[in-house]
Write a structure and sequence with these properties.
Length: 348
């Protein structure tokens, strides 16, 4: 007989049973959870692949539509500006097709727009002719003798020399306080009939004379109201048009004169009262168009810079984080580098 004080521990016999029972319960649960996670993962992958397929299809459709729209736009552009002279095409490119700038090369690859003062200026011709009078005006500040000498040089049969001398004479007379005489000399250039057929350098002098005439007229506005008004309108006109010989002002001079127009207009209550049709926003748009064209012309000075750039191809050419693209397009013997910022890029 066993002793009454002996105890039998049966818990050790139950541990294997409990362990097997736990495994029997936990393992299927773990497996079930794993299979569920894999199913969810596979479902996500399937959904992602489906979305990728949809997006790729949409992207392909969008690319095809963009190519088609671009082709149609360039065809329309060809019809509208293909046979136009360079200057006459600028308004269409800016206001109809909404480009932010352009560089135009002729059939030889020479840049014909934007032209700069440095490309056409003949001021070097004046150095020998005017060095003595410039000494009097700018160094010795003897305006009376300078005005007299300018008057002598204004007798030249060379229109370019004559106009430069008259402007110099007007400048000196104004510094002497002889505004009426200064206006008289300046008018001879500002209202010259040479404007219709002259070369670009002479046209530049006429434009400068008109700006000077406005400034002189506004000094004594009571006696020169009509002259100030007419001079202002004629300055706008010469900026926006080419003459009958096909000459037009260089881009950088047009930018300068357009800014001066806005400056004079903002400061003159007389002009604000009498000139109602000036569109400041439009003028600012023209300035921005030409400024971008001038800036990019420095990077693409001639058509050879586009040698590896296929026709009807859009490329990013922005600097310092700018969103600017160039679109090369050949039309009627000319090569165009159309410049567009983000707004136009989105529409393309």
């Amino acid at each position: 007989m066993p002793s009454k004080g002996l105890k039998v521990d049966r818990s050790g016999q139950l541990r294997p049973v409990l362990l097997l029972l736990a495994i029997a319960v936990v393992l299927p649960t773990v497996c079930l959870l794993w299979f569920m996670s894999q199913a969810v993962k596979n479902e996500r992958i399937a959904v992602r692949q489906k979305l990728i397929g949809i997006y790729q299809e949409k992207l392909s459709e969008a690319a095809e539509k963009s190519d088609k729209d671009l082709k149609e736009e360039l065809e329309r552009l060809d019809e509208q500006i293909g046979n136009k002279e360079v200057f006459r095409a600028l308004d269409d490119l800016r206001d109809v097709f909404h480009y932010d700038g352009v560089i135009i090369y002729d059939e030889t690859g020479r840049r014909v727009y934007p032209r700069l003062v440095a490309d056409v200026d003949r001021a070097v011709e004046l150095t020998e002719i005017f060095k003595d009078v410039w000494q009097l005006e700018f160094v010795e500040q003897d305006y009376a003798r300078a005005a007299e000498l300018y008057g002598q040089k204004a007798q030249s049969i060379n229109i370019y020399v004559k106009f430069a001398a008259l402007i110099g004479k007007s400048r000196c007379l104004a510094k002497l306080g002889k505004v009426s005489e200064a206006i008289s000399a300046c008018r001879e250039v500002a209202y010259s009939s040479e404007e219709k057929y002259c070369d670009t350098s002479t046209l530049m002098l006429i434009a400068n004379a008109r700006l000077l005439l406005i400034e002189l007229s506004l000094r004594s506005i009571k006696s020169n109201e009509s002259l100030a008004l007419d001079g202002f309108l004629k300055l706008r006109e010469i900026i926006e048009q080419e003459d009958e010989a096909g000459s037009f002002l260089p881009c950088d001079q047009r930018i300068f004169l357009a800014r001066k127009i806005l400056e004079v207009y903002e400061k003159s209550s007389f002009l604000k009262e009498h000139v109602k049709d000036i569109n400041v926003q439009s003028l600012q748009k023209e300035i921005a168009f030409e400024e971008l064209s001038v800036r990019m012309a420095g990077r693409f000075p001639a058509a050879f810079a586009l040698a590896d750039w296929p026709d009807e191809t859009l490329r990013s050419i922005g600097e310092d984080g700018e969103t600017i693209c160039g679109l090369r397009h050949d039309v009627s013997g000319k090569t165009l580098l159309l410049l567009c910022r983000e707004k136009v890029i989105r529409s393309l």
